[in-house]
Amino acid sequence: xxxxxxxxxxxxxxxxxxxxxxxxxxxxxxxxxxxxxxxxxxxxxxxxxxxxxxxxxxxxxxxxxxxxxxxxxxxxxxxxxxxxxxxxxxxxxxxxxxxxxxxxxxxxxxxxxxxxxxxxxxxxxxxxxxxxxxxxxxxxxxxxxxxxxxxxxxxxxxxxxxxxxxxxxxxxxxxxxxxxxxxxxxxxxxxxxxxxxxxxxxxxxxxxxxxxxxxxxxxxxxxxxxxxxxxxxxxxxxxxxxxxxxxxxxxxxxxxxxxxxxxxxxxxxxxxxxxxxxxxxxxxxxxxxxxxxxxxxxxxxxxxxxxxxxxxxxxxxxxxxxxxxxxxxxxxxxxxxxxxxxxxxxxxxxxxxxxxxxxxxxxxxxxxxxxxxxxxxxxxxxxxxxxxxxxxxxxxxxxxxxxxxxxxxxxxxxxxxxxxxxxxxxxxxxxxxxxxxxxxxxxxxxxxxxxxxxxxxxxxxxxxxxxxxxxxxxxxxxxxxxxxxxxxxxxxxxxxxxxxxxxxxxxxxxxxxxxxxxxxxxxxxxxxxxxxxxxxxxxxxxxxxxxxxxx
Length: 551
Prior knowledge:
By secondary structure, the chain is of the alpha+beta class. It has 12 helices and 21 strands. The strands form 6 sheets. Strands 13, 14, 15, 16, 17, 18 and 21 form a 7-stranded antiparallel sheet that branches. A 6-stranded antiparallel sheet has the order 4-5-6-7-9-8. Strands 1-12 form a two-stranded antiparallel ribbon. Helix 4 runs antiparallel to helix 7 (239-255), helix 4 packs antiparallel against helix 10 and helix 7 (239-255) crosses helix 9. The longest helix has 30 residues, at 360-389.
């Protein structure tokens, strides 16, 4: 691998990294670029590019708010719709390239189809004279990059809420076949009410040349600090590259420092080819084990070990967010006003001014009161010391029960399933193996078949308080049953108690919390399938099912 970094298209979310010559990049406010020298030693007159006040006859350009090697971003006012917008203008070296412009507009149209509360909306694209521009929603708040610069490491609860919102937006894009390719703090914005917004969907690809029909060999799309390993190895880039980048971002939010840092952008990027990321919990003790596990899984070098898409990662993070996510992240943009309350612990010193006891009886009364007061304080101190010596009760994670056996439940054709032997893959603890049903021509099976299921034997009746399921592809309709004795397949569902869970189109990673239920046999009954990888039929593919007991 060569050692270069093309800074001309990185820091505003449109990065292409080409082996050849190392460079660096910077984020920040837009800098004026045009100017004249009036003569002599006079200071040059510098104007923000482009030197005009309006665009397309409706957008009043108010001020540049960000700049990078590929584009400049202006805050503008849409005079037709009376609203503030952000306008990204391609710099001339991109705007004069017909291939780049065509790709930029095509990717922008694809990203404009996103309609998600955590994705910056794209309103319009256009050309005027030699200018190529993109009109977007204006977010009235800082980028995550600015928040990290101002605050340093963030509260783990806020990090989980931020990650859930970003992953949710990515999940919507992934469902539409769109990969961001440049997830980083500069492309994550926070509005004034705390809502997290992801910007620049698809723009990195548009300006990279990394297109199926327009490929520039050796080009890597993305930013060195957040690029996924497969992006460096000319591998296939899919949703899991975004998952890796988001994991790196969350790691930085928790630790306050970049996950990888080298002397050059190339060295920074190359480190992830040989090193797994150090778990944030090893750097910060107050990071929960659950959040640590999510970040570690998202940043695995092997992409098959990561969450398959944004929806799966959002589902995992959602279990850690107790309130509305935007309410939690609102703390990241709230103004904290310091009040002058003096130095903590400082006590105002005043001379004693109480009257001296006038009689011996008064003196004895005060002495007795002081003695009793001393006894009370001593007793309180002893009790407090005993309490401190007691070990605090620490909540532990739910304990997974061992599953002794798994098998296929098929009332339509009892005992004849060709997938019986692979049922054990759903309990082997390996997310890379899975049980797959037979392929069917319709999502809802057929008139003579209501569904297909997996039966799990815990060996004896166990108290189950939760069930976690991992799928290869989400979208299944499922029900969960339990029984003390295993009913015969021919009895169908009549031998099982009523469903404990019934949910349609479950996520790739799904967890249910149950009222404590003590049973030996459990049935995952599937009534709706998901489209297969080929798109020609429908299947169910279950990677792992875990039954959780008391903590």
